Amino acid sequence: MGWIVFTYSLPSKSSSGPRVTLWRRLRRIGAIALSGVQVLPDRDDCLESFQWLAREVRQANGEALVMRVEQFEGMSHQSIVNKFREVRREDYTELETKIAELEKALGVVDEMSDRAPIQETLEKLYKHHAEIRQIDFFDCPEQREVAARLKQLTQALLPQSPVVTIAPQEIEHYRNAQWVTRPQPHVDRLACIWLIRRFINPKAVIHYRKKPVAHEIPFDMHIGEFQHQGNLCTFEVMIKAFDLDDADLQTIGEIVHEIDLRDGLYVHPQIAGVDALLRGWLLAGFADSALEAHGIALFEGLYVACMQDASKATV
Asked: Beta-carbon neighbour count of residue 207 at 10 Å?
């Protein structure tokens, strides 16, 4: 892997505002200073980030240059990687300090107290963690430790959920099934549709009706095996019933659960964006077929992203 290099200069008489803004932008995209230039790994998204910055510099009557560099004289590839990791380590250390403060605050809160402020702070910490992960190009080892502490904090904050027993189902019995759910599918039903096409039958027939007819398998319709059970949404029920609950599906299940039930049980940075997107589709009046197609694409993207994050965490 090579490197993308960004160098710039602003007019000497310009105010400090553009300089401070540019410095903050460079930090936000994860660039590091090296030999008087700013550096990012040679990736398409990194190149685009520098190109946008170069455009802004030129609009401020400055000069900017973006170039690719194979290697830096006197610096090994690994030494540069280590510099990126050092900067991210500082970010994770700062985040760990905030996590410790929240853990201390939670320790003095009794069961009757309002935990909403702590929940709000926890959501901000998750968002901060996601932002660091976005620019953690070389998988700083501290990331896993911070993620584990956030998860532990979430479990400590939230009440224990009742155990729900789900009857196991054999996927083979559903390969040729025709499925049915209510019209205008939203988050839970769209996730179930994606699961059916991803893991059971990519060409499965899915109908949209208020009531099932003979030989159709209903889901999320308050009838049949596949509906809300206990505190589980239908998607969670299906991944348990078909024994598909791997870590990545569990993450998607938690996102779907929170958007569908809004009980504050799970915190993920993707929740707000997915929720807004799904509501936008409904407000736009998309037909069932369009909602299905968009939903499948959305959850496939989420699944692949979750798998990529998991593979990076194990490197």
From this structure: 14
Q: Can you spell out the DSSP letters for 127-138? A: HHHHHHHHT-TT
> How much is the average pLDDT of 116-138?
88
Q: Which two tokens stand for residue 44?
A: 């398409």
* Amino acid of residue 10: L
pLDDT tops 50 at residue 32? yes
Residue 95: partners with Cβ closer than 8 Å, 6 or more residues away? 125, 128, 129, 132, 146
Domains of the chain: 3-69 (3.30.70.240), 77-157 (no CATH), 171-313 (no CATH)
Q: How far apart are CA 272 and CA 106, in angstroms?
A: 24
State the chain's mean pLDDT as an integer. 90
pLDDT digits (tens, 9 = 90+) for 172-196: 999 999 999 999 999 999 999 999 9
**Amino acid letter, residue 300:** E
Question: CB neighbours of 157 closer than 8 A, spacing ≥ 6?
Answer: 106, 115, 118, 119, 122
The mean per-residue pLDDT over the stretch 191-205 comes to 97
Largest CA distance in the chain: 78
DSSP classification of residue 197: I
